[in-house]
Amino acid sequence: MNLANRITLARIFLVPIIMFFLLVKLDLPPIKIEQFSITYNQIIAVLIFIIAASTDSLDGYIARKRKLITNLGKLLDPLADKLLVTAVLVSLVDMGKLDAWIAVVIISREFAVTGLRSICAAEGIVIAASKLGKWKTAAQITAIIALLINNFPFAFLDIPFDLIASWIAAIITIYSGIDYFAKNWHVIQFDN
Asked: pTM of the full predicted structure?
């Protein structure tokens, strides 16, 4: 259990804590500025989410720099990412902040690409993260943060940035999923 894997495990352990703050109502009044309102729960959840999301780059950097890449890390890192994003998306749907179809599209793509990676791995082919995959992650994190902070500061300007970011995340997610399948279609074999 090296440092990179410990950081990845920490990201996994932060998931239920984030969900707790998103889904359990504390009896505290929200913070209000003019028409804008946000709960203390959301502030705590978004701070933990940002910390958890930032550990994704950190654990990968440490593993490569110190030559600590392990099979456990290869399993845990993508699992931690998917758990984090999936848990927060489901929480946002439950809170009425995100349309369910966007969450389903994003989660479905993650399952599909994971399945593709498994098929490729069985054939001895490793699918590295693409630029589109990295853009997808950035778009998803941006949308999630915008939704968690109730579109601050764009709410003051009447700009639905959180909605726009959600749509962009969904579009990039679909496109990156199609790209992964198009580039690796030759590996998928259909038996008669």
From this structure: 0.90
